[in-house]
């Protein structure tokens, strides 16, 4: 099934290789560092980091948000015809 069909059937889909595997570790490290620096202290769980507006302080993954598969799938969820 394509991503849109999966979203309709299951409520979610997994898009493989949006972030190239050789870049995952670097982006993960950047996000973890950002969460450690900007984390809200009132988080309910100690192992969960929450940074409001993460993209505003860490753009390490920004280019991948424009992946065509991600955009078309999310557009389908928000745009009705």
Describe the structure.
With 81 residues, the chain is mainly α. The protein has helices at 3-10, 21-38, 54-57, 68-78. It has four helices and no strands. 0% of the residues are buried.
Question: Between the first and last Cα atoms, what is the distance in angstroms?
Answer: 21 Å
What ranges have pLDDT less than 50 throughout 5 or more consecutive residues?
none
SSE class: mainly alpha
Output the radius of gyration.
Answer: 15 Å
Number of domains: 2
Series of H and E elements: HHHH
Strand content: under 5%
Assign a percent range to the helix content: 40-55%
Backbone shape: globular
Number of strands: 0
Task: Please give the count of helices.
Answer: 4
Largest sheet: none
Q: What's the mean pLDDT score?
A: 85
Give a quick set of tags describing it.
mainly alpha, 2 domains, 4 helices, 0% strand, 81 residues, 51% helix
Outline of this structure?
The protein is mostly helical.
Please write out the topology.
Layout: H1 3-10, H2 21-38, H3 54-57, H4 68-78
């Amino acid at each position: 099934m394509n991503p849109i069909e999966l979203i309709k059937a299951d409520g979610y889909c997994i898009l493989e290789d949006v972030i190239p595997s050789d870049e995952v570790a670097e982006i993960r490290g950047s996000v973890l560092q950002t969460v450690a620096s900007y984390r809200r202290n009132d988080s309910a769980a100690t192992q969960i980091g929450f940074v409001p507006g993460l993209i505003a302080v860490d753009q390490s993954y920004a280019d991948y948000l424009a992946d065509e598969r991600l955009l078309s799938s999310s557009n389908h969820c928000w745009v009705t015809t």
